Amino acid sequence: MSSANDKRTESIPDDGVGEASGALRLDLRPGHDVQLQAAGSNSRIVSRYVGQHAGRYLIFRGGRRMEDNLQHMHFSAGEWVLARMVQDGTVLGFWASGLLGFRARILIQHRTPEHLLYLEWPAEVAEHSIRAAPRIPCLAGCGLTIDGTRHDGALLDVSETGCRVDLLGLDEDALGAQNRVAVSLHLPGQPGPVEISATVRRSKVAGGRLLLGLQFEEPQRELMSEVRRYLQDVD
Question: What region holds the PilZ domain (predicted)?
């Protein structure tokens, strides 16, 4: 690796790739935390995603902490970097769809007006499930209140931190601009429905059904412990 003081050409190399029509899709928001690690080294920082030109490059800036400054890594053009990020959530979130990882070559670093790192668009991205709370699959009745209107549905699975709900006959327009809802769960071993405030993290329409992934506003550890104890007793 070269010194952080080495001079480099401050231009984007034209590799003739252009915007690839079949490019991998990386749904990242500016400010998304991405861990960068120099290939063949244990050195790593948590950078922040800036933007992309699909099929050509990804752009990163230094992280929020002093130790996550890009200059600390002494990256050089042409070197390989390992990147790891969480899709649809944060590393500490409980409703992340998976940990995404890829490796890519460094194109260039800009140093003015701020330090930015350009990585070549990855050829492939690996995904691994990182669910933080184990889920209990089930098929039970539930209710969902959206903007004061109650809708009946089916509970597909539940954990301490969230659940999946199937609402028949609704589409995504039913949510409007609202992503906070109240969910009423009919859980095994409970004397009555349990009311929980939740946030919609994922939504999908399939075959006239609206499938929602909900994250509870407060972890339901005690409740889920009771449910697990009940299920163990009846096995």
Answer: 131-232
In a domain, 20, yes or no: no
d(Cα 85, Cα 94) in Å, to the nearest integer?
Answer: 14
Total of domains in the chain: 2
Residue 130: other Cβ atoms inside 10 A: 16
Q: What contacts 159, CB < 8 A, 6 or more positions away?
A: 94, 131, 133, 134, 135, 136, 224
The 3 state secondary structure assigned to 37-92 is EECCCCCEEEEEEEEEECCCEEEEECCCCHHHCHHHHCCCCCCEEEEEEEECCCCC
Q: Give me the domain span that covers residue 225.
A: 136-234
What is the distance between the alpha carbons of residues 95 and 159, in angstroms, rounded to a whole number? Answer: 10
Q: Which of 128, 153, 172 is the last residue of a domain?
A: 128
The single residue listed with the structure tokens 């601009």 is 177
Same domain, 115 and 40: yes
Model pTM? 0.47
- Report the CATH number that the domain containing residue 213 is assigned in CATH: 2.40.10.220
pLDDT tens-digit profile, the chain (235 residues): 444 334 333 333 333 333 333 345 566 778 888 889 888 787 889 899 999 998 899 999 998 888 888 988 888 899 999 888 765 443 333 333 455 678 899 999 888 888 999 999 988 776 555 455 677 888 788 999 988 889 898 888 888 888 989 987 777 777 765 688 999 998 888 888 999 999 888 888 877 788 888 989 998 988 888 888 877 765 5
| β-strand partners of 206 | 209
